[in-house]
Amino acid sequence: MDELTSLSNATLDRLSVEHPTYDRTALTPGIVHIGVGNFHRAHQAWYLHRLMQEGLAHDWAIIGAGVRPYDAAMREKLLAQDCLTTLIQLDPENVSAEVIGSMIDYLPIEEGNAPLIAQMADPAIRIVSMTVTESGYYIDPVTKGFDAGHEDLVHDAANPDTPRTAFGAIVAALRLRRAAGRGPFTCQSCDNLQGNGDILRQTVVSLARLSDPALADWIGAEATFPNSMVDCIAPATGPKELALAADFGIKDNALVTHEAFRQWVIEDKFCAGRPDWDQVGATFSDDVHGFETMKIRILNAGHQVIANVGEILSIETIADCMANPTIRAFFGKVQRSEIAPTVAPVPGKTPAEYVDLIETRFSNPRIVDTTRRVAFDGSARHPGFVLPILRDQVAAGRSVEGLALVEALWARMCAGTREDGSVIEANDPIWDDLKSAALAAKERPLAWLEQSNIYGDLIENSMFKEAFSKSLAAIWNDGCEAVLLDYADGVSEKANS
């Protein structure tokens, strides 16, 4: 094999794949992004790179940031290759690669977050964006309000100049900007949360109010928090993915694989300007809610429909789950009978068409998206993605049989063993509590629904309670496949045709 080319500004012209044609040394920063994972680089950073390739947005380069010690490993990898990233697109018919260069630096990770605060206080920064996962916004799971009692936020309120969280750092930077007579930046969430901008606003303004009410009022009046819908499957990177770069003659220790599909719908509320992302495929819309409802309910909730049963049956990937006729039939019936009826059409797409699209995307065998990754943090993802659908079905008096089965499968997974006897390792921030409830529910199913921090008053609904109890008992007695076959009776042949 020929010698691989290590990524750097100096080696770009040696690459045989598409790469930055702009002068990266002339780029200036306009965005700080907190949480530089695979999704960000396959999505927001890619859109910006496409603009830069057209000679635009050269004053909007991204500076990466993190607030947790584990972010330091990604920082080291990216700085070693001048913050370049190889994106490998895994289409079922073809594999292609490109190198993007819209990120130009990555801030040091320090206790107290001084480098991050100083960078965000710089007036050149006009957008602070983030991907910190759905559970990272300090939301009370039942009330959906600000969780002011969380120890991280108590710390930040008491120590506003040396915060522990990204939100505390944002508040500290906005305090410096206000004191210097500068305007605020736009705070932009790129996480899979319905109303993600509204939730980010709630977290930032509420945290500021704990230490400086006048600052909170200024942030609420002057800063903007656009809602957005983001979509692109970008699996975790492991040895197999890293090896793909060698097929293109590249050595990249931080590459990203992703599907061919991307979508970004953004509310056009930017107090300090923005790149023209719409020129490279993003959509600015006043109806982000409609797009995000369709995506979160059909794609994100759809992931939860199949990931837990995949774990229980030792099926490694989402594509492998979709290749299983029984699971595919289960997925299709839940989607079409209980999820799609709660979703309105958006311009260019009906709910039924979107279900078809998601079935195709989930079935892509080149996307090695593990069931374990998708099942992670169920205590945030089920209340965020699945339970709102269930509540709508209950309110409308429609069936919840399939959604109750989804919740029963999650309860069975959290018992911590697969049907082949192997152990499911901890996969949730509150795993011990979930496992305890799941084991109790083996004998008394309602023990699972008594987790009021997750289910609230849903335990009081007899239709859901009875369907859940029946499903969980059947799963333990008869096994997952038998229960899924019974539920999806009559559609397996269609799903496999």
UniProtKB/TrEMBL annotation:
<dbReference type="InterPro" id="IPR013131">
    <property type="entry name" value="Mannitol_DH_N"/>
</dbReference>
<feature type="domain" description="Mannitol dehydrogenase N-terminal">
    <location>
        <begin position="30"/>
        <end position="278"/>
    </location>
</feature>
<dbReference type="Pfam" id="PF08125">
    <property type="entry name" value="Mannitol_dh_C"/>
</dbReference>
<dbReference type="GO" id="GO:0016616">
    <property type="term" value="F:oxidoreductase activity, acting on the CH-OH group of donors, NAD or NADP as acceptor"/>
</dbReference>
<protein>
    <submittedName>
        <fullName>Mannitol 2-dehydrogenase</fullName>
    </submittedName>
</protein>
<keyword id="KW-0560">Oxidoreductase</keyword>
<dbReference type="InterPro" id="IPR013118">
    <property type="entry name" value="Mannitol_DH_C"/>
</dbReference>
<dbReference type="InterPro" id="IPR000669">
    <property type="entry name" value="Mannitol_DH"/>
</dbReference>
<feature type="domain" description="Mannitol dehydrogenase C-terminal">
    <location>
        <begin position="287"/>
        <end position="476"/>
    </location>
</feature>
<dbReference type="InterPro" id="IPR050988">
    <property type="entry name" value="Mannitol_DH/Oxidoreductase"/>
</dbReference>
<dbReference type="Pfam" id="PF01232">
    <property type="entry name" value="Mannitol_dh"/>
</dbReference>
<dbReference type="InterPro" id="IPR036291">
    <property type="entry name" value="NAD(P)-bd_dom_sf"/>
</dbReference>
<dbReference type="InterPro" id="IPR008927">
    <property type="entry name" value="6-PGluconate_DH-like_C_sf"/>
</dbReference>
<dbReference type="InterPro" id="IPR013328">
    <property type="entry name" value="6PGD_dom2"/>
</dbReference>
